[in-house]
Amino acid sequence: MGDSNSKEITVSTELGDVVVHKMPLSDYAELLRALSNLPKNLGEILGDDVDVKNMANSDFLQKLPGIIADSWGDIGAMLAVPTDKDAAFLLQLSGADAFDIIDAIMELNDFVRIVNTVKKMLARRAKMATPALEPSKL
Fold this sequence. Notes:
Blueprint: E1 8-13, E2 16-21, H1 25-46, H2 57-70, H3 72-80, H4 87-90, H5 95-109, H6 111-129
Antiparallel strand pairs: 1-2
Helix pairs in contact: 1-2, 1-3
């Protein structure tokens, strides 16, 4: 698709080319705003009393189409942040084209590295927050 040093990847779709760009830090705020509506939608679809973490996979998969359908605008907004297209254009793409764009977004912006770094930071913070036992209490 593109090399890791590239600042953009052009994805050819049935509706025309979509340019995916490497997101500057300021774009992450916009992406987080688009993501912030998803938990609200999940609560409305699943019910506020549902514990998603402990929900059976089969139950979650049954609800997944409703989650996606009710979050469609939010999904379009999230995809629009790192591209040169707006949500309305992106929501008209075929599923295959949309996943090609998602793949380009993930590759170019190295989300796996970001997630791993955040996990390390959180683990370090948790370790620092755990008080060490005093030698006299050992």
